[in-house]
Amino acid sequence: MNTITTKDGVQIFFKDWGPRNGQPIVFHHGWPLSADDWDTQMMFFAVNGFRVIAHDRRGHGRSSQVATGHDMDHYAADVAAVVEHLDLKNAIHIGHSTGGGEATRYVAQHGQKQGRVAKLVLISAVPPLMLKTAATPGGLPIEVLDGLRKELAASRAQFYLDFASGPFYGFNRPGAKVSQGVIQNWWRQGMMGGANAHYLGIKAFSETDFTEDLKAITVPTLVLHGDDDQIVPIANAALLSVKLLKNGALKVYEKFPHGMCTTHADVINADLLAFVKTGSVDAAKKAA
After folding, report:
1. Strand 117-123 with 221-226, pairing
2. Is the bond preceding residue 128 a cis peptide, omega within 30 degrees?
3. How confident is the model at residue 279 (pLDDT cuts 50, 70, 90)?
4. Could you count the other beta carbons within 10 Å of the beta carbon of residue 195?
5. Cα–Cα distances in Å, from 56 out to 12, 37, 95, 105, 193?
6. Is the predicted pLDDT of residue 20 greater than 70, yes or no?
7. Are 91 and 111 in contact (CB under 8 A)?
């Protein structure tokens, strides 16, 4: 198994596929999943000549189930450790949901300063801030997040089954084509990780303010979001993030759910490939 050990002694698992001389793409997974959530994208981009890397966040998947460090600063530092171990340069970072927050902080505080990042993609991502505050009145009330914590602590297995069966993929919408395989794979990934890490991770993804990170990012950044995202509503996320980015473009997908990388992989993969190959925000704006 490919692993690295961080400065604070945490083992981080990662996948590293595709040609070693290909441009690297680093994938950042959502909560409470693992690198496996990117398998469709990793296969697609490896076949297209890219080197593809995805890691399991600390406390998730095959990485160490540690008691501490379940916050965005540690998450980003863990990514930096993997990137530096592999000596990745000119890399494209793609983050989904919580992974979008992780990728944002990594690029702003590590990768961009080190000259290792070429582009960034945020998909259904949590920035700039999910929590409802005076500055973000459209955010989620703390009571909603407390409810997630309560359900997780009471019966994580059932909570994860319900989450995947319902709003994550939009399977609760009338006429939705429900995939039991997708539901079971989501549940499998979630149950591989540590309950404590997932519990603490809710605070990390919902209460971290990425405003200054977004402002600091200068590399071309593509923001993708479905307008029927029931987990990270677009109005308080992508629509605000793109305004803070110096070199950003937004593409909105009508009726696409939070988990659109899985439910609409063919569409998302094609758009990602076009952006990755050109790196042009202007082209992305025209496509939108």
Report:
1. parallel
2. yes
3. low
4. 16
5. 6, 10, 13, 17, 9
6. yes
7. yes
CA dihedral (89, 247, 267, 99) positive or negative: positive
CA proximity to 69, closest of 85, 79, 54, 58:
58
**Whole-number Å distance between alpha carbons of 279 and 73:** 27
Helix, strand or coil for residue 261?
Answer: helix
Residues with a known catalytic role: 97, 229, 258
> How many angstroms separate the CA atoms of 65 and 95, rounded?
22
How far are the Cα atoms of 132, 220, 238, 262 from residue 279, in angstroms, in the given order?
Answer: 33, 7, 19, 23
- Our CA angle for 120, 121, 123, nearest 5°, is 155
Q: 10 Å Cβ neighbour count for 112?
A: 18
Is the overall model pTM greater than 0.90, yes or no? yes
**Closest by alpha carbon to 53, among 21, 15, 102, 2?**
15
Nearest of 239, 240, 208, 259 to residue 101 by alpha carbon = 208
How many CB atoms are closer than 10 A to CB 73?
12
